[in-house]
Design brief:
mainly beta
Length: 383
């Protein structure tokens, strides 16, 4: 735990760093004031802040990987504080005039490797602290290695960032990228027709309750119609979609569904779709958004408010099931044995003879009576 005084790169690519510090070592008593460390890349890629540059109205943030679609685009993804220091006889000094800055706008480059964070008040002679949301993910679903950065603004630059240069990303709606096509993804909803869906125990799509509007598959408040499900069945798969629920609303994504039972939920487990803020059930956390309904609570709260889109991802591979919400893995369990199977007897599903019984099934979107919207629905069969 010492300051670096010397660094050397060896032929094998390893970096040796050595340092000699001073007594006290940042007030962390008991640590050595000298040290030698060997650093070597383990071959793993990292999603990280690559660099920060200042403009007259804010900061450019570069990333080592592409931001995932919808990540880094929200004002709440960034927190900015600033303060100043005054010279003192002692090392360091207290922060003076600490204030939380207002983030006015966020713009993401079309290549999604850079974001511009527009700050309402930029002032020379201050230290700016920028913290990014821990929920931000890269296109490869990796979390940020570090979410913090500090910038000492000694002089305000004259250059004003052109918003035309940093126009917001237009998220591709209801289409497959070239990369997704190459990986075997299939589009389940093109924004125009629900041709890949039908009603539960019906050959046709419901004539009431559901509609296609503005590139979204919508269920209307109190509209009826029942659950809809994919026409095809899937064994192992990776499923993705975006959903937005009305205030106080409830819906769900149900998978491995068969039509032997009385309802979709009578045969398939459910990834909960919910407005947590208005339907908080403090006695059963396994009924929150993203949870494996009535079985497994989310490892952390990742849902966004009812007025915003949420990204859902379900991965079913080699007997392991994962729920991902807004880039965060919130549920992980084994399908055929272990805790999940043992716990069925303790739930209402114990009375359902066809629950979690099939190796291939439909994926259903639930009509729970509330208004909900779905878009960018796609799937990649894995077997």
């Amino acid at each position: 735990e010492a300051g670096i005084n010397r660094m050397k790169i060896f032929p094998d690519g390893a970096i040796f760093v050595g340092g000699i510090g001073s007594g006290g070592n940042w007030a962390q008593e008991g640590k050595l004031w000298y040290g030698l460390q060997r650093l070597r890349w383990d071959g793993q890629e990292t999603f990280e802040i690559l660099g920060i540059r200042v403009a007259k109205s804010g900061f450019h943030i570069d990333f080592t990987e592409k931001l995932g679609y919808g990540h880094g685009t929200r004002l709440s993804d960034y927190t900015v504080q600033s303060w100043r220091y005054e010279p003192t006889a002692a090392y360091g000094g207290p922060k003076i005039d600490v204030r939380t800055e207002t983030v006015k706008n966020v713009y993401v480059w079309e290549n999604r490797r850079r974001a511009f964070v527009e700050v309402e008040k930029m002032e020379a002679g201050r230290v700016y602290y920028i913290r990014l949301s821990s929920h931000m993910r890269s296109e490869e679903h990796r979390a940020l290695w570090s979410t913090e950065a500090w910038y000492t603004l000694n002089k305000l630059p004259k250059r004003v960032t052109s918003l035309g240069e940093t126009k917001p990303v237009d998220l591709p709606l209801n289409v497959l990228t070239n990369k997704e096509k190459a990986e075997g993804w299939q589009l389940l909803f093109d924004g125009k027709s629900p041709v890949h869906f039908r009603g539960f125990k019906s050959e046709g799509f419901p004539t009431v309750g559901w509609e296609v509007k503005d590139g979204e598959l919508r269920h209307l408040q109190g509209g009826g119609g029942g659950d809809v499900m994919t026409r095809d069945v899937y064994g192992d798969f990776e499923f993705q979609c975006e959903w937005k629920i009305n205030e106080g609303g409830n819906s769900g994504i149900i998978y491995r569904v068969n039509e032997l039972g009385h309802s979709t939920w009578a045969s398939g487990p459910e990834m909960q779709v919910l407005d947590d803020a208005r339907q908080l059930d403090f006695t059963n956390l396994s009924q929150r958004a993203g949870a494996l309904y009535d079985f497994i609570a989310c490892t952390e709260a990742a849902v966004r408010p009812s007025a915003e889109w949420n990204h859902a991802r379900i991965v079913f591979k080699d007997d392991i099931v994962e729920h991902w919400l807004n880039g965060i893995r919130v549920v992980h369990y084994r399908w055929s044995r272990g805790w999940f199977r043992d716990h069925i007897a303790k739930t209402k599903f114990a009375k359902e003879p066809y629950f979690a019984k099939v190796a291939r099934g439909h994926i259903a979107l639930q009509d729970h009576g509330d208004a909900v919207r779905y878009r960018n629905i796609k799937i990649k069969p894995l077997n």
